Amino acid sequence: MIRHIVLFTWTDGATDEQKAAVADELRALIGVIPEIRSFTVGHDAGINQGNHDFAVVADFDTVDDYLVYRDHPRHQEVIAQRIKPILASRAAVQLGL
Amino acid sequence: MIRHIVLFTWTDGATDEQKAAVADELRALIGVIPEIRSFTVGHDAGINQGNHDFAVVADFDTVDDYLVYRDHPRHQEVIAQRIKPILASRAAVQLGL
């Protein structure tokens, strides 16, 4: 099992609609990429100062399945059209479980 | 349910022993803090360039349970004694699930 974790911060000018579109279009990947075993997407809860703004936690059976997700054309479209226009910073880890 | 996610990068001088001690002592919190529902800790798998080095994903039933973990004296000891001496950067999100 491989767990992909990525945290984003958004630019100051990012709108609520733009942030919501990232979450909606990432969640829709579940129906497009059957290799996804578990998928958690969402905005920071606002408990702590200094946090990143948004998180994705996605589980896959194998590294190859993760690579299908990473490189999938629809995923790459969401990155290019929804994430990159409002991206300030990104932190990621893949964990073997 | 609240999911706490944190990613670290380590200083260039951090040793394998120091990195392993972070993982070991964080995992041992499962036996000390019963509010932890699920706890995944580990080093980046090395699939992608530019990643952070280490991840923690911890689930709790409530925000209050997460705060017990966050502020627990033993957790604070691990942060002070094991994490901070080798910490280069940190990114975190708490997600309501």
TrEMBL record, chains A, B:
One of the Pfam families matching this protein, by short name: Dabb
Domain of life: Bacteria
Record InterPro entries: Dabb (IPR013097), Dimeric_a/b-barrel (IPR011008), HS1/DABB1-like (IPR044662)
SUPFAM superfamilies in alphabetical order: Dimeric alpha+beta barrel (SSF54909)
Domain Stress-response A/B barrel: 2-95
Subunit text: Homodimer.
The protein's name: Stress responsive A/B Barrel Domain
The species this protein was found in: Nonomuraea pusilla
Lineage: Bacteria, Bacillati, Actinomycetota, Actinomycetes, Streptosporangiales
